[in-house]
Amino acid sequence: MRTVLSESALLQVVGEAGSAEEAVSICMRLKPDVVLLDLHLPDRSGVEVCRELKLSCPVLKVLFLTSYGDEANVLAGLTAGADGYLLKTITGRNIAEAVLTVACGGAVLDPLVTRHLIGHICSSGAGVSQPGNLSTKERRILEGVAAGQLNKEIASTLSISEKTVRNQLTAIYQKLGVSTRAEAAIFFEGLK
After folding, report:
1. Dihedrals phi, psi of 39, to nearest 5 degrees
2. N or C: which end of the chain has fewer CB within 10 A?
3. Do 72 and 33 share a structural domain?
């Protein structure tokens, strides 16, 4: 993984860990921008590590890279605050792009993961009456989020301020009953 990520001139690998405890310790010391985390670690769950890291350092971005794409694991990871969730079937170049997207504030989801979550949303009835509560501007902002755009890009596209985008996102999250950009993007994909 270090070799794959090091091929990008925009990325620098600052640490590696073989266990959850080691990962937490390294993150607290080195304060990386993005942590690439597996879901199942030898000594603890990656979900627990994600939650702990997000509580300690809310600006830290966490991107899961794992073999487990089932609905329960994906939802657990996103609920813990993950900014992205990828399956290990992804190519090296795409991993680097995903890390850069998450580092810039975007959300990344593996297409198969998105499909599972859309199924979950549809089968659970979550959000069925909620889309009607979104204004046209909120829908366009949500569309930008789902496309992986940063707040700055959404603001430019819609000719509004970045602060307006942030405020609108807060309202969107509330209306949809989600708490992360990734969950909002999943919700939007379920509307298509």
Report:
1. -75, -40
2. C
3. yes
Structural domain includes residue 115: no
117-146 pLDDT tens trace: 666 655 555 444 345 578 889 989 988 888
Instruction: Give the CATH number for residue 157.
Output: 1.10.10.10
HSE on the CB side for 33, CA within 13 Å? 12
Cβ–Cβ under 8 Å, residues 69 and 43? no
114 found inside a domain: no
- Given a cut of 70, the residues of the chain with pLDDT beneath it are 116-132, 189-192
Token pair for residue 177? 């009953």
For the whole model, what pTM was predicted?
Answer: 0.66
Give the domain-ending residue among 57, 76, 109: 109
- The Cα 106–Cα 81 span in angstroms is 13
Is 91 inside any structural domain?
yes
Same-domain pairing of 14 and 44? yes
